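Q: What residues go here?
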């Protein structure tokens, strides 16, 4: 009976990426700025024309400096035609971006003041005029966040048009921007330090059930 329960439980665990996941979180403190939730990767499939999916971004700044961030999105795997057709709106206290998802490239999200918590909301939509054939497609998207350097720490206001991403303590220095494309800047994106809960939870459940099985066997041996 316990074996059957173990097999059923394992079969129901969320091994596959969750479609329309809720969002991700950024933390800034004395040790730097980083993503503390799971990696910002989301899968989308079976989207009918007119369907939309929300993704939330929370920025918690516990440091005594303000930070400016930029965001990009690209295809990690899947069908490019679906990616090219998706649109996105990024909203904070005001709209940050509205247009094709493929145009979400190093879009400035503005400044996040010291000792503050700010939320941004993204809505991905498949336009109503998209073909029904796109419903059979799937795409896995990854969002990239960058720290923008363009204003002194603690100051407010918008970053300049061509920001530079600084290197982080303990990381190698970044190469300069592409000379053929002065508006570009190097990537390191914010590091991801969140625990992969989707892997730990199934593993913990399996170990718990194995422990119950061993305990039951031990009790049977004692009765004998």
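A:
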């Amino acid at each position: 009976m316990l074996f059957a329960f173990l097999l059923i439980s394992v079969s129901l665990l969320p091994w596959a990426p969750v479609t329309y996941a809720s969002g991700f979180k950024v933390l800034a403190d004395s040790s730097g700025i980083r993503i503390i939730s799971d990696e910002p990767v989301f899968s989308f499939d079976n989207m009918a024309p007119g369907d939309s999916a929300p993704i939330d971004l929370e920025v918690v700044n516990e440091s005594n400096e303000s930070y400016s961030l930029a965001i990009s999105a690209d295809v990690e795997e899947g069908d490019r035609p679906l990616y090219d057709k998706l649109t996105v709106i990024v909203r904070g206290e005001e709209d940050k971006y509205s247009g094709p998802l493929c145009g979400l490239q190093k879009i400035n999200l503005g400044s996040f003041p010291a000792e503050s918590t700010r939320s941004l909301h993204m809505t991905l939509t498949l336009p109503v005029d998209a073909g029904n054939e796109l419903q059979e497609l799937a795409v896995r998207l990854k969002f990239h966040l960058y720290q923008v350097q363009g204003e002194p720490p603690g100051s407010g206001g918008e970053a300049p048009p061509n920001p530079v991403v600084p290197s982080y303590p303990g990381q190698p220095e970044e190469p300069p921007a592409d000379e053929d494309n002065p508006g570009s800047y190097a990537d390191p994106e914010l590091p991801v330090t969140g625990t992969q809960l989707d892997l730990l939870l199934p593993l913990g459940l399996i170990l718990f059930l194995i422990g119950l099985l061993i305990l039951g066997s031990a009790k049977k041996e004692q009765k004998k």
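A: Context that may help when evaluating the design: The radius of gyration is 22 Å. The first strand starts at residue 23 and ends at 29.
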